[in-house]
Amino acid sequence: MPQGTLTSTTDLSGVRIFGAGFDSTSQVRLDGTSVPSALVSSRELDVTIPHTFLATPHRYAVDVRNGNGVSSGVTDFFVIMSVDMITATCALPQPSSVAIADQLSGSGQIFAPIAVVSNSGCGNVAVIDIAPQLPVYNNGVFTNFADNPHFGKFTFTSIPTGAGPQGVAVSPRFGLAVVANHTAGNRLCLEFEDGQTTSHGRHGRRFPNRSCHR
Domain map of the chain by residue range? Predict the structure, then answer.
């Protein structure tokens, strides 16, 4: 079975699972839910993955269960989302590095979690929301998770840096990102806070109350 596929709005057919002991009762399951499959032989199944499983990025646990209750081992199947870095202000982004923060201290939900991508071709960085779901609270009490409508979208499409940004690191604890500008020979510090970003110290200058040198 392939390791994964991209998100899609159409069914994925022609997926092959190879093993042993398959029969007409064999059911292929993704996270415990059966998906359509056809028996090719006792060693091969032809599987179709419905588009509902491919709508958003996810890591599925895949197994095969026969009618007699015997199950196979479990393998992973990844659904991956592609994010186009080309924007109206950046026609040739040439993304060179990425840093991921699970949660930034002192920030809103929009930054929990995020990916910060440096685009060496445009001399900027972009910030992408990578939280598939967000917690829902009722009177301050957690109730459930809901799909995040901003998932996979830019929170900031173009934050100017120096020339040729080729490295980026994020400190979730302090809500900071540091971008190394290879061509310009300097660095830029970004502060993420309450849905805004502020650049400081292209040459390593200290923040008024914070520092890139922690």
Answer: 4-80, 95-200
